[in-house]
Amino acid sequence: MKTLLIAVAVIVLMIGAQSAFAISAFESGFRHGMADAKLDEANSNQQDYIEQPGNGFANHTQQFNHGYVQGGCSITGPNHGKETDAAVFDCERTN
Hints:
With 95 residues, the protein is mostly helical. It has four helices and two strands; from the N terminus they run αααββα. 59% of the residues lie in helices and 6% in strands.
């Protein structure tokens, strides 16, 4: 019986640990938007996350896309944006 209780407690803790590390779609988008904006500012040859196949705005939720724009604009400021096949936005109009 004691072993069963310990096993159940471990399973409950493992399930809770997964949700503790989960981030929202908005937060994920925000982080990716910030990272891509930093790459753009550095004129990096590395491809933006949003430009990689299957990662464009059409492949994400509205919450992710909103977070991506907010994250990118938090780095670049209001006079910037992005206009590519994968993502189009203007920081001036999104704030």
